[in-house]
Amino acid sequence: MHTLIIGGGIGGLTAAALLAKTRHDVTVVEASTEWGGCAGKFQRRDTLFPVGATLGMGFEQGGLHDRVLRLLGKQVPVRLLDDVMTLHFPGQTMTYFRDRRKHLDSICGHFPDAADRIRSFYDELWKTAAVIRTLMKPLPALPPKTTREWAYLAAFLRPPHMKLAPFARLTLFDRLQAHGLEQETAFIQLLDGQLIDSMQTTSCDVSYLMAATALDIYHEGAYYVDGGLYRAAETLAESIRENGGTLKKNRRIVSIKKDRCWVAKDHRGNEYRAEHIVFNGAIQLLPSLIEGLSGRHRKMADVPTWVTHTLYFTLDDAHIPASFPLFQQISAHSMSEGGHLFMSISAKDDRLRAAAGKRTMTVSTHSAPEHWQSKEQYDAYKTELTEKMLSLIETVYPDFRQAILAMETGAPKAWERYTLRPNGFVGGFPQTAHHALFGSLSHRSGLPNLWLCGDSIFPGGGTIGATASGIHCARSIAPGLFSL
């Protein structure tokens, strides 16, 4: 049984590595020269930059990446962070601590008038997240589409899980109101800064159950990965190769058709025949490749998501403060259009990213696609947003520009070119109460033996979400052949 994996991002590589481990015949084709997709890398002379994702999660014992790597007999060197990141929001700066109680005490110290209500809110949120985590080990697929998937879900449901039902259609803001926190705008903005990065939306719309998981997950373990998260992708690729799989870069698939089996053709005219295809890419790309996609998958393929504008810096370490955190968020009054930044800088001793005396830094912000339409608008907005981002960094580090040795920009067209994401759409769909969980897109495409993974598919964005969707694809192709 041959399986073709289209797209060498984390989700596709996970599916391929698990199938190859069970001696399935697997071929992975990737359009670019790098593995990892939005968790990949690029190099400029003696400096290396993570493309997008930088903060690692799921590497703790029992975490999703840890479980996959253990099954494959692989490791990725990581550094556990006790101080996860520094959060800058109007008028205040605080540290996001891995220790839950220390973190909560810190928050309450910043909002003393609301401390009792905040403690009550977090007590509920952490209990909710703990119940959700018990379902992450069996990892049922949502929404269930087959009798087998419904039975698998039912087999692991216990009485505590029934307590989640009343929250299923609620937003985080609904629960903030229940705890009397709806007027605590500064506290809500603090939460929104974390949610926009992981959930692609903010407290007013985000699914409460997904938000509870997102706001709790850093406490389970957040990690710095020397070099970047591309090392996880390259480790998966190494495992595929060792277990007999075939890996091909610079192969952009231009059509997928069903004959007696699936037939995919790349831009060089090569054909790939397979019983199964796993498509690891933005759902918006699929209608241009294949006919017959229908239902909700076809409808969501026409839905735009966020784009991102990213700045990549080579910095002179002599101008970087000794206390400069590895990961930071800066939030102004808006959560988009440059009002919210996520910053990650290479560790001082990370020689994979930069030579001694230099550091690399990635800074990204969300943007709406309508700002990048015509060439004139695109060029003007790229300049405007770049300056806005630099100015926002300077509100926290006034001498930042003195440290810049080189800067490159990653506007939406760059993401479209290098990751094949139409219009530069990244991050997947916002995890709203309507779209998340049972409202998510299944890894089952609706077409026989065509499977989907990546940040558009349940459970959503981030490397953990992509990994989970890859696991679901592999389980569906080879049920019962491996256990995580």
Description:
With 484 residues, the protein is α/β, with parallel strands linked by helices. Helices cover 33% and strands 21% of the residues. The chain has 3 domains: 2-39 and 57-78 and 229-303 and 433-477, FAD/NAD(P)-binding domain (3-Layer(bba) Sandwich), CATH 3.50.50.60; 100-217, no CATH class; 307-423, Ribulose 1,5 Bisphosphate Carboxylase/Oxygenase, CATH 3.30.190. The protein is built from 14 helices and 20 strands. The strands form 5 sheets. Strands 8-7-16-17-18-15-19 form a 7-stranded mixed beta sheet, sandwiched between helices. Strands 10-2-1-14-20 form a 5-stranded parallel beta sheet, with helices on one face. The protein is globular and about 65 Å long. Residues 10-477 form the Amine oxidase domain. InterPro entries: Amino_oxidase, CrtISO-like, FAD/NAD-bd_sf.
Could you give a quick summary of the protein structure above?
With 484 residues, the protein is α/β, with parallel strands linked by helices.
**CATH H-tier superfamily of the largest domain:** FAD/NAD(P)-binding domain
Query: Spans with pLDDT under 50 lasting ≥5 residues?
Result: none
Q: How many strands in all? A: 20
The quaternary organization reads as single chain
Number of domains: 3
Q: What does the overall shape look like?
A: globular
Tell me the name of the CATH class of the largest domain: Alpha Beta
Into which percentage range does the β-strand content fall?
15-25%
Please give the largest β-sheet.
7 strands, mixed
Number of helices: 14
Q: Taking all residues together, what is the mean pLDDT?
A: 95
CATH fold topology of the largest domain = FAD/NAD(P)-binding domain
Indicate the structural class: alpha/beta
Rounded to the nearest angstrom, the distance between the terminal CA atoms is 22 Å
Radius of gyration: 22 Å
Q: Tell me what the CATH architecture of the largest domain is.
A: 3-Layer(bba) Sandwich
Helix content: 25-40%
